[in-house]
Amino acid sequence: MTTDLALASGDGEALAAIEKLGPREKWRIVKNIAVLGFAFMIHFTAFHGTSNLQSSLHNDGSLGAYTLASIYGSLIVSNLFLPVLVIRLFGCKWTIVVSFMAYIPYIAAQFYPSFATLIPSGLAVGFGGGPLWCAKCTYLSIIAEAFSIATRRTVRTEYLIVKFFSLFFVFYQLAQVLGNLISFTVLSYGEAGDGALLNGTERVETVMSQVNISATCGANYQAPVAGNGSQGVIDLKRPEESQLNTLTGIFLACMVAASISVAIGVDSLKRYNMIRTGHANQVSGTRMLIITLQQLGNKYQLLLLPITAFIGVEQAFIAVDFTKSFVACGLGISYIGYAMISFGLANAVAAACTPYITKHLGRRLLILVTALFHATLIVFMLLWRPTDEYYKYSIIVACWGLADGVWLIQINSLSGILFPGHEEEAFSNFRLWEATGSVIMYASSPFLSTFQKLLFVLGIMIVGTIGYGLIELMEYRVKRVIAEKRFEVVSQQADES
Q1: What pLDDT was estimated at residue 283?
Q2: Residues 329, 383: contact at Cβ < 8 Å?
Q3: Are the CB atoms for 26 and 150 separated by under 8 Å?
């Protein structure tokens, strides 16, 4: 059984099948990507806008951190057991619609936040997340192959996968911008005139004269310990309930609109079934589950795990620890959205530029430069003394967003390049280990200082970059023997009966 992207009856017949759909099929494929990206953008406008506030709004008993941990904990289970089965049942398009709907209770729970409402709804998000991201990645990979055939393979499928992921993530990363812009606008409305917007130096002197922002916030931040009250920690002013309810209503509308957009505006992959023979349609769901787990036996997949986990770790750090330890502590909860807008903008820029930079610099050099840049940023954050100047927070998180955008595009697309024909298993493993990294950070948030967590982020990035480097080294050695050899699946044991 082949593991490569395969044409059902050869390039000629596949091209004829594509041409039967019409001369404008290439533009229809682009439309599908655009609508899918738009739907993810407004859906995650709500999710990111809500999640970025969790650790600061729900700080009592670390409810916010544990809610996020429940999301990514259930995402681990979801990635192991659900993607292949759900996609086989509904197809990629309707899997995305159903998974979107699984997020809605989490937003609705913000009206009545408690362990009884947020934890179960967080679990629902995780169970929907596994099939959602696997279906999205599989959809993009397959229509990249269709587009390659429609253009008579004048553009390599490998490059198209990177480009399509980039186009999608331009939309997706704008969710951070919109979500945080909405959050900042709603939560700061009416506060500018009463001096309560900032937790700056003047506020600290009048409310908590014993606290020094530069000594307490940033890498030096420590969560309040039970029994010690808020000693040594700046009080985070909670917005009015009416503001929070308005914000939740807006985000609920976004999620409903996202589900409708995919249901109406995205074509089913049945339209492009003629271009490939996928083994996912030839074996049972149980067998596919076994194959998904066996994917961990592939040495390339194994070497990708640390860098994949790092992506989850660094994103969780920004969502929980940077928003609370740096922004909420130094400026105030209302300014979380303002600062995180820079993260979303930088993410979108990185997503748009990564394919073109990759084309000129190459994947290896770009990842090396990104690793050095990110490591330098972490060291700076370890040494930086926070102030009440909000633009400095925006610059820091924008730099983090640039690095995150490159990591996300390169490692996501690499999973499709390394394992063609096994995208479901590869992307399921990507989400599995990304979620594992997130859970580790969320679960440790109440117990570790921000300084310790920054060191952990730096350490796992170094390990992950080394693992990626070993893959490139093995490929280099293979190409010395077989000219022009491309990435391919290393182990095919899963296909052997």
Answers
A1: 46
A2: no
A3: yes
Residue 163 is encoded by which pair of tokens? 């480009």
Return left, alpha or beta for 461; rule: phi > 0 is left, psi -120 to 50 is alpha, else beta. alpha
Distance CA 142, CA 388 (A): 48
Decide which of 237 and 235 is more confident: 237
The CA-based angle 5-6-10, given to 5 degrees, is 145
Tens of pLDDT, residues 37-86: 999 999 999 998 888 888 777 766 678 878 888 998 888 888 777 877 88
Phi, psi dihedrals of residue 143, rounded to the nearest 5°: -75, -20
Query: Measuring CA to CA, which residue among 469, 496, 470, 474 is closest to residue 485?
Result: 474
Q: Count how many residues are written for the chain.
A: 497
CA distance 107 to 260: 17
Reduce the DSSP state of residue 107 to 3 states and report it.
Answer: helix
CA dihedral 328, 330, 334, 337 (to 10 degrees): -70
Asked if 83 contacts 137 with a C-beta cutoff of 8 angstroms, the reply is no
Asked if 298 and 419 count as a contact pair (C-beta separation under 8 A), the reply is yes
Best CA proximity match to 384, nearest among 441, 325, 317, 461: 325
The encoded tokens of residue 161 equal 């996968």
The answer to whether 235 touches 208, Cβ cutoff 8 Å, is yes
Rounded to an integer, what distance in angstroms lies between the CA atom of residue 125 and that of residue 103? 5
Rounded CA separation 492/298 (Å)? 8
- DSSP, res 298: S
- Residue 203, pLDDT score: 41
